[in-house]
Design a protein that fits this description.
elongated, about 200 residues, single chain, four-stranded antiparallel β-sheet, alpha+beta
């Protein structure tokens, strides 16, 4: 066999070269294809997580829709039984507005610490004593919060992709306050936070 390699040097060099090229190509192909498959697998897992969060939100919204339908049915029954529906709706509306004002607690003394403040998406929290307005612009799928905050003369400051446990420190002519994000609920599109003077 050694004599064949010695007598056929050109063929053996070509054979070795082809063998090395083939092995290199097979190694590259295997490595490249494996990394490509891993990349696709991670993309699929991310998409599945996103889909499951959207499905949970859809289920919640369907439940809310059913609840609103039953409430609408009640209102239709009251409307048909009432002699003056507009007066009834006006009184109910006033009760609702008054109860919402009680729940928001907008005028709390400036020195107190405020806990468990819930803000829903596209709504704002307004505390006149602190001269503080916090608006929740959006909540991303990866539980990042996007806020717009005005505090004293420090107006319309944007905070992007804040996470649970993060504290935002604000300074203005009113002094310094700390806003801590305690809970982010993507499904219900709201956050819970605390404010410390």
């Amino acid at each position: 066999m050694a004599n064949w390699f010695e007598t056929n040097q050109t063929k053996s060099i070509i054979g070795y070269t082809l063998l090395i090229i083939g092995a290199s190509w097979a190694f590259y192909k295997f490595t490249f294809e494996e990394s490509k498959i891993d990349n696709y697998r991670s993309q699929i897992e991310t998409k599945q997580a996103t889909i499951s969060q959207y499905q949970a939100r859809i289920e919640y919204l369907e439940e809310e829709n059913l609840r609103f339908k039953s409430e609408l049915k009640d209102f239709e029954e009251w409307n048909s039984k009432s002699e003056n529906p507009s007066l009834f709706y006006k009184s109910q509306y006033e009760k609702t507005i008054l109860s919402r004002i009680d729940l928001t607690k907008t005028n709390i003394p400036a020195k107190s610490n405020l806990k468990d403040i819930i803000i829903s998406k596209s709504e704002s929290y307004n505390n006149k004593d602190l001269d503080l307005i916090i608006g929740l612009k959006d909540i991303s799928v990866n539980d990042g919060v996007y806020l717009n905050i005005s505090y004293g003369d420090n107006l319309n400051k944007t905070f992007d992709n804040k996470k649970v446990g993060e504290t935002i420190i604000l300074k203005s002519n009113k002094g310094q306050i700390k806003i801590t994000i305690n809970k982010i609920n993507y499904i219900y599109s709201n956050i819970t936070m605390s404010i410390h003077k």
